[in-house]
Design a protein that fits this description.
The chain is α+β, with helices and mostly antiparallel strands and 124 residues long. It has three helices and three strands; from the N terminus they run βαβαβα. The protein is elongated, with a radius of gyration of 20 Å.
Length: 124
């Protein structure tokens, strides 16, 4: 038995996922497929040492279905231990998705605007 949403396995006798609240399916969950192709020609669309910016960019790419790879991500684990080490990470995407990915990543750098076209917080 497994949950079709989160793919968590359950013992016989359970009928509903305790987290997702959906009916369980019989059998074992399907094996995850890795859509990343290491032969892709990758390009860097973001270089940052800001973990929040990296997380937001990764979320945008995931939502858009754009595969990505993060160079230097292991270094961020060290940064978690020592916050003074600001390690740089490079976010890479396949070349054929570069334009779309750059547009998404650049949207993170745009100041938020109100309906009047003024930057939020702009008083003058």
């Amino acid at each position: 038995m497994y949950c079709p949403q989160c793919l968590v396995e359950y013992r016989e006798g359970f009928t509903e996922c305790s987290d997702c609240r959906v009916a369980l399916l019989a059998g074992a969950p399907p094996e995850p497929t890795d859509s990343f192709d290491p032969t892709l020609d990758l390009v860097v669309v973001l270089e940052t040492n800001d973990s929040m910016q990296l997380a937001l960019a990764k979320g945008l790419l995931e939502d858009a279905g754009i595969p990505f790879y993060v160079l230097g991500q292991i270094a961020t684990l060290v940064q978690g231990v020592d916050a003074f080490l600001h390690k740089w990470c490079r976010l890479q995407v396949p070349r054929d998705r570069e334009a779309e990915a750059r547009e998404l990543v650049e949207s993170l750098e745009q100041p938020a605007t109100s309906d009047t076209g003024d930057a939020i917080g702009d008083t003058g």
